[in-house]
Task: structure prediction
Amino acid sequence: MVRATPLRSLTLPFLAIVAGVAFALPNQKYPYVPWLLGLIFAPLVLLPNSKVWTLASITIAELSLASYMLPEVAMSLRFLVTVAAMGLSLPLVLRLRDSANRKLLRRVLLPSVALVIVATVVDSTFSDSDYVIKYFRYQTVQVLVLLVAAAVISSRRDLKRVALVALAVGLVAAVACVWQHYGAQSAIYGNTQPSAIKDWKGRSVGLSDSPVTVGNQLTFVLMPLLGVLAAGPMRRDRARMMLCAAVLVVFAGLNFTYTRSAVFAIGPGLVLMGLYLRGRRRVVVLGMVVGLFVMFQMLEGTGLIGSRYYKDASEDRSASSHEALWDVGLAVALDNAIMGIGHEHFEEVSLEYLHVLDEELIAMGGAGSIGQERPHNDWLSVWTSWGILALVAYIGIFVGALRNLAVAAGNSDTLVRGLAVGCAGGLATYALNSAYHNYMDSSTTLWLYAGASVALARLPSHEETIVQLRNRVYPRGARAVPRASARLYRDGYV
Result:
């Protein structure tokens, strides 16, 4: 067995890559992009330590420059990073098919592949080959993300490392959101500029290019973080207090995006988290949901919560636009329920359904989005695009991931259990949030959750990990167990 290279010996190469990329690819328009690119590619230098750093690169890209195009190679950053990560972790991915837990992978991989097949067949019927190939390539990247996430997390230490990377990037994005709210001109940005805050009417964009995108990114960090706190030991120690502080920072950043669906979707996420917990923890989490709802109602008009969170379709053009697209999208889906209309034709077809809108919605300006935008709803988008079989496959990804997470939620290891509970809540949050946005066309979040569900469900329990690593590192009999356990914890193996 090849011994992993210690992280400390790879620190200088890591920093050298970050600085080298930043200085080799200067960007006058987006000055922070080169540094983010350095942070995205530098983890690949850490591969002699663990293959999990390929997933770290994917995660950093997804939480910062998810939609960025590399002008030097005329290629999507997401595509380049994912393909590189897949190539570097291919042996581990191939090993999944020989795993005793491969049924965990089938639960999410089969519906994901089915969605790609159905989408490609239907798009081939309605669109030209260039569009079909382009969207097939994008969907393939999503499936590759799932496979990498499922394969490279093989120990508690791997899980902890990638979780800390996601938390660190999420905190930076959240701080950027808060900073942009109070000082737009001096704040840090990703692939956008301070003028974006004005264009979005005061809504923060974090390290992304829109408040909608960063809303999805921050809930992706927030929900697992809440899960770790909810399932972890009930004690006041420094680590727990730091995690609580991180929750406040991430939620503050999310609040200043004013992405209503992302904030409101936390409620259903907490409810599902409560159902995955047991005993007093379940009561506390469900009680928290009730308390937050009551507090939200009581604080209306006080100025402590942005007025945008209280507006509906009768007061806000964005909300009326969502409602109009929902009405039209549902009518299109029902008329083309079996086969769909192809992914690129909704704007054209939707103009034939203006008659389904009521006069009040038209008066609010909701009709202005018809013919101009896709349905702000991934569920409707899948159905209208590719028909009922695609919708069943899409639902199957959620169901498979939740089943895997239910297995992982029974793990005796508090970190595994906490992240499983948090990811279940994150899936519920994503499901509701994506009912108001087109995340499927701009994010791999769902596939990260699906892959993580496989990894979490196949990780051994705390007791199994101790025995396995003791036998590997300290093969000197049962009397060495207490001392071995302490050292393994100190070294970060468990």
